[in-house]
């Protein structure tokens, strides 16, 4: 399979680009922020996602979706990134769908997600840095489990209908095994969400689970062996975040190159200065390399290849590096105007910081690549 | 089974059968590299066997047409052959500027006679080519070249000097940029082919910081070249030159994808692993891991670039981006390799060190971001031609 988008995927990219630029450009985010919106995204926009078929694009056709893959989801995420469009798409339609597909709870939730009726959130992190340890406990209780512990950095966790919670059913916090993944309805008693507005104006919740009772049928996959489902979830989330990162990086870079073509100093367009040309060209190269790494990971995931796991970490780390460079260079090359709230470029820097931390930062994923390489 | 799956199975079986075991070992030093030519040198007879077997199928140049001795493979088949060779660890059977540089230019600009004459010999590794581009006064400003070709009946008479001519002292033929019109710059350049055995040519190796001499100075003193050896039109050689440079940059960018196995193996051997299986030097481990991510990402970029090239979807200036990233990565790789080997890798001529193969290779990589157009020239090209940034 060639490592570029096929005809159908190119058409989807055109559609997604047009749709998000029209329905949710950066001004849309600015308006939500200025209104101090408490949801974190616009439900009308989410309804449009459902009309477009985006909410269920990765849901199997039998469950009311389009049965598409990671490449296609990434196309939409890149446009979400380019426009900084606030949306629960990554958590709901990509990560949660990847985890739920082929499981018993999926039969209940996947049609709801495809129809745009269910928003999902991912309760993974327990500390300020994403890592592999899980302390939140799920003890057997009657026909089900009792969950107790805390989670943080749960995007849309205060308004989601469904929370996917990774919990420990055996062993100690740092054990690789003994995990179980739960599909928890958000209205389950004992679950409280404390929403916090983040630097990029998105809202993430700190969750407290205080003896939350769930039925056994809420288990995604197998008890004590949630690693398989969790890997599907995290691979989708990481690759998706990497695709969104490409959009953020590309959106910032495109604005900056336009600015270099227009801004004049010393009687010349500043884009004619070699010092700036070389920085812009270097940035372009980094973004191109990151784009290839992300597409490679998406294709390998869609092929269910055993090489996908490392490729996912390469994609998340490389996209993080390229996006970080892009937003930093963009503010610098915009000069003073880049520091103003009136200019859009600062929004890109803020979103980039959040995306870098999501599902493992550059260091976390570089470490994973090293471990996979035996050093 | 689909046709491609069948092709993969057949290719794998053929490689298993025909690639000698010693040709599945990593290249240790320059001597292990097969260049072919009229006076070939082989460190191991298997090199010749492997070359001849691959050349017989045209697989030294899988995607050239059968009519010129190539493999005639489709892009998808050529990709499968590359993947299967990589998975076996099979060495490249033939390194050749004829394959990576001249051939593509001849396919696009050569006459039918020129293609018939030169391409099959390139495929079989019978003629080794060198490149006459840079001059003492024309480096980054290549179009300022002054080597002249003066019209003399059926011939041109060539006079002048080239520099950085890779392996000119070992090459059989040269593709050479010459000036046929002094009144203009780019529009006065022509592209000539000639035999290095022609009277009037002398070469002088240049000793580099590596102690080796891969490059030469090349002098032309009334060298007589038949006009039939002109590629493209007279005074239009700059088009051929630029097209060829794109392929040269693509070739050089391949240095970014040579694999991280030797680097990691060296680091583990020298430094060791801690109880958690991590390289015991955390600072070096972090530097290698960052490089590893970038190198793997660049491998994906190379795959994408090649696929786009074959599908005619690549931006014509994209080889400049590839060359820039690939060469900078390769320099980093060798810096990390030297750091991983510590004082073991400082030995310059001991047998243990394969006569200082590692430090000499490390020093050689410093030219990667200079030869074929410096990193700065590549960034200029990307800025102007891809990003469309203004000249003033």
Describe the structure.
The complex is a heterodimer of chains A (about 375) and B (about 400). By secondary structure, chain A is of the alpha+beta class. Helices cover about 50% and strands about 15% of the residues of chain A. Chain A starts with 6 loop residues before the first helix and ends with a helix. Chain B folds into three domains: about 5-100, Butyryl-Coa Dehydrogenase, subunit A, domain 1; about 130-235, Butyryl-CoA Dehydrogenase, subunit A, domain 2, CATH 2.40.110; about 240-385, Butyryl-CoA Dehydrogenase, subunit A, domain 3, CATH 1.20.140. Helix content of chain B is about 45%, strand content about 15%. Chain B has helices spanning about 5-20, 45-55, 75-90, 95-110, 110-125, 235-255, 260-270, 280-310, 320-340, 355-365, 375-385, and strands at about 130, 150, 155-165, 175-180, 190-195, 200-205, 215-225, 230. In chain B, the strands form two sheets. A four-stranded mixed beta sheet of chain B has the order 1-4-5-8. In chain B, strands 2-3-7-6 form a four-stranded antiparallel beta sheet, with no helix packed on it. Chain B is globular, with a radius of gyration of 22 Å. In chain B, about 45% of the residues are buried. Classes of the chains: A alpha+beta (about 375), B alpha+beta (about 400). Chains A and B meet through helix 7, strand 10, helix 8, helix 9 and helix 11 of A and helix 7, helix 8, helix 9 and helix 11 of B.
């Amino acid at each position: 399979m060639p490592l570029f988008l096929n005809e159908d995927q190119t058409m989807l990219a055109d559609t997604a680009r047009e749709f998000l630029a029209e329905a949710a450009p950066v001004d849309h985010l600015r308006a939500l922020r200025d209104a101090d919106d408490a949801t974190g995204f616009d439900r009308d926009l989410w309804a449009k996602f459902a009309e477009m078929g985006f909410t269920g694009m990765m849901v199997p056709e039998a469950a009311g979706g389009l049965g598409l893959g990671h490449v296609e989801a990434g196309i939409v995420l890149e446009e979400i990134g380019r426009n900084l469009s606030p949306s629960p798409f990554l958590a709901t339609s990509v990560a949660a769908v990847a985890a739920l597909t082929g499981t018993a709870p999926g039969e209940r939730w996947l049609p709801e997600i495809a129809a745009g009726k269910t928003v999902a959130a991912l309760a993974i992190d327990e500390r300020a840095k994403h890592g592999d340890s899980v302390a939140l406990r799920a003890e057997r209780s009657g026909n089900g489990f009792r969950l107790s512990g805390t989670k943080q950095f749960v995007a849309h966790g205060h308004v989601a209908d469904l929370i996917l919670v990774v919990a420990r059913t055996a062993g100690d916090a740092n054990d690789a095994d003994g995990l179980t993944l739960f599909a928890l309805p958000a209205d389950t008693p004992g679950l409280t969400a404390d929403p916090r507005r983040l630097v990029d104006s998105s809202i993430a919740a700190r969750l407290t689970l205080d003896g939350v009772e769930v039925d056994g049928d809420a288990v995604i996959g197998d008890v004590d062996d949630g690693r398989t489902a969790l890997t599907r979830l995290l691979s989708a989330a990481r690759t998706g975040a990497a695709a969104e990162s490409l959009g953020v990086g590309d959106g910032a870079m495109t604005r900056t190159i336009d600015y270099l073509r227009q801004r004049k100093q010393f009687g010349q367009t500043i884009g004619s200065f070699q010092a700036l040309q070389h920085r812009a060209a270097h940035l372009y190269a980094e973004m191109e390399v990151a784009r290839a790494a992300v597409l490679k990971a998406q294709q390998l995931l869609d092929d269910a290849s055993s090489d996908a796991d490392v490729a996912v970490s390469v994609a998340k780390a490389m996209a993080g590096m390229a996006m970080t460079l892009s937003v930093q260079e963009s503010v610098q090359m915009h000069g003073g105007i880049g520091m103003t709230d009136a200019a859009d470029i600062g929004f890109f820097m803020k979103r980039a910081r959040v995306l870098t931390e999501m599902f493992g930062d550059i260091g976390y994923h570089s470490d994973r690549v090293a471990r996979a390489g035996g050093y | 089974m689909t046709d491609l799956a069948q092709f993969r199975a057949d290719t794998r079986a053929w490689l298993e059968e025909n690639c000698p075991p010693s040709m599945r070992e990593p290249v240790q030093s320059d001597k292990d590299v097969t260049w072919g030519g009229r006076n070939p040198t082989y460190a191991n007879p298997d090199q010749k066997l492997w070359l001849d077997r691959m050349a017989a199928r045209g697989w030294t140049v899988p995607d050239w047409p059968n009519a010129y001795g190539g493999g005639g493979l489709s892009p998808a088949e050529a990709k499968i052959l590359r993947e299967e060779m990589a998975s076996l660890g099979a060495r490249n059977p033939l390194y050749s500027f004829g394959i990576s540089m001249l051939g593509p230019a001849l396919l696009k600009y050569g006459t039918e006679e020129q293609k018939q004459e030169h391409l099959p010999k390139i495929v079989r590794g019978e003629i080794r080519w060198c490149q006459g581009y840079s001059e003492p006064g024309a480096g980054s400003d290549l179009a300022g070249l002054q080597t002249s070709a003066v019209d003399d009946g059926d011939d041109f008479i060539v006079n002048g000097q080239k520099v950085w001519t890779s392996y000119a002292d070992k090459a059989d033929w040269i593709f050479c940029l010459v000036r046929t019109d002094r009144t203009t710059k780019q529009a006065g350049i022509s592209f000539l082919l000639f035999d290095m055995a022609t009277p009037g040519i002398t070469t002088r190796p240049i000793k580099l910081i590596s102690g080796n001499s891969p490059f030469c100075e090349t002098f032309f003193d009334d060298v007589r070249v038949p006009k039939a050896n002109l590629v493209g039109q007279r005074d239009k050689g700059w088009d051929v030159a630029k097209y060829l440079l794109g392929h040269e940059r693509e070739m050089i960018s391949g240095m970014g994808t040579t694999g991280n196995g030797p680097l990691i193996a060296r680091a583990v051997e020298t430094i060791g692993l801690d109880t958690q299986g991590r390289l015991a030097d955390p600072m070096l481990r972090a530097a290698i891991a960052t490089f590893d991510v970038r190198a793997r990402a660049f491998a994906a970029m190379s795959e994408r670039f090649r696929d786009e090239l074959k599908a005619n979807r690549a931006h014509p200036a994209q080889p400049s981006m590839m060359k820039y990233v690939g060469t900078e990565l390769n320099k980093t790789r060798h810096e990390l390799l030297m750091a991983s080997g510590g004082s073991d890798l400082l030995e310059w001529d001991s047998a243990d060190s394969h006569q200082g193969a590692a430090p000499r290779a490390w020093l050689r990589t410093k030219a990667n971001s200079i030869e074929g157009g410096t990193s700065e020239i590549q960034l200029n090209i990307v800025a102007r031609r891809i990003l469309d940034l203004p000249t003033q």
